[in-house]
Amino acid sequence: MIFRYKSEACQPFFKLRHIRDFTNATPTHIVKSMNFRHIAFALCFLASASVSSASEDAYAEKGQSLFDRYASNAQDLVVRALSFVGVNYRHGGETPETGFDCSGLVRHVFRESLGLLLPRTSRDISRVGDTVQRDELQPGDLVFFNTLRRGFSHVGIYLGEDRFVHAPARGGEVRIEDMRKSYWVKRFNGARRIAAADFDSVAN
User: Which domain holds residue 76?
Assistant: First the structure.
């Protein structure tokens, strides 16, 4: 079950370039040499571009459509998640000050971006929202993996172009991964979408 609470809107709009170079770099190079705000806007742009043509046809006379609202929410999620690249992993951590574990990062991003409080564990989070097929992933979707010899033991936020951001493991830090790498392909458990429809059905 998810709950809504009020928070300030996330309003980061930045400039970007060379997003592919970011994913191919080592974590140390990423943290020290890249401008995270540029990267955040890059993937934010991908999120909006991927749905732009559909969104133009989707506007209804009564206002913004469900699809358009989801695209806007996904944009906020991507920007917020990328702002934490380089933050240290910490088991049980849920803030940038203490560090994050995988579900702590996801919970923090959804809470700060959309005002939603998700369940604490990745397995419980995997029961929220709607199932998404691998070839239908959109930025802002949640992707799940079996990294501890049990299903849905790890979660990250999908960014687009087969990349996702996550808090990996003890001794690591929040970073971007390529889902096409064999390690992740073998461990992929599925994906979920916390769409705009879910927000309207949540109790205050």
Answer: 3-201
**Integer CA distances (angstroms), 146 to 44, 128, 151, 160, in order:** 28, 18, 5, 21
Asked if 154 is an active-site residue, the reply is: yes
Q: Does residue 166 carry a catalytic annotation?
A: yes
Catalytic residue at 29?
no
Q: What is the CATH number of the domain that holds 43?
A: 3.90.1720.10
How far is Cα 23 from Cα 137, in angstroms, rounded to an integer?
18
Q: Which of 10, 18, 102, 108 is catalytic?
A: 102
The string of pLDDT tens digits covering residues 107-146 is: 999 999 988 999 999 999 999 999 999 999 999 999 999 9
Which is catalytic among the residues 18, 91, 108, 166? 166
